[in-house]
Amino acid sequence: LKGTKSEASARILKKMVSTFAKQTNLANNFTKLIKEAIIYFNSDNIGDIRECHKTVNEMFECVDIMLKTYTNTSEIWTQVVPNCIALSMTLLTKIQDRDGLRNSLKILTSIFDIKYNKD
After folding, report:
1. Alpha carbon distances (Å) from 111 to 40, 62, 63, 115, 117
2. Which residue has the higher pLDDT, 118 or 104?
3. Out of 52, 72, 87, 104, which could bridge 42 as a Cys pair, Cβ 3.0 to 4.6 Å?
4. Angle value at C-alpha 111, between 52 and 114, nearest 5 degrees
């Protein structure tokens, strides 16, 4: 799932992230998987980010779920959030889709919201 541009795969991943949020051993695996997916989408291997911004939006929703429900907050803040911020900046500078821009700003708002920034 981490190396695909499929929006449907990202939706499945989002459902899994949400479903297994309370299982600590799986939460750590999902943290790593989301981090690697976000790095992939921010790499040169992706080509034109505009073609897969809907998939990236699903990834951002995964991060939002993690910020709200996961207990492994230090891993999320050190591994996922910095890469998520970098990808958000890439999207904000490269796409013109209104929903994509809105979702990029939405995840940044969640990241910087004081109630989720516990560390």
Report:
1. 20, 12, 9, 9, 7
2. 104
3. 87
4. 165
pTM of the entire predicted model: 0.82
Q: Which residue has the tokens 């700003």?
A: 105
Residues 2 and 37: beta-carbon distance below 8 Å: yes
- CA 97-33-4 angle, 5° bins: 50
Taking each helix axis from N to C end, the angle separating 81-94 and 98-112, rounded to the nearest 10 degrees, works out to 150
At 13-51, the pLDDT tens digits run 999 999 988 888 888 888 999 999 999 988 887 777 778
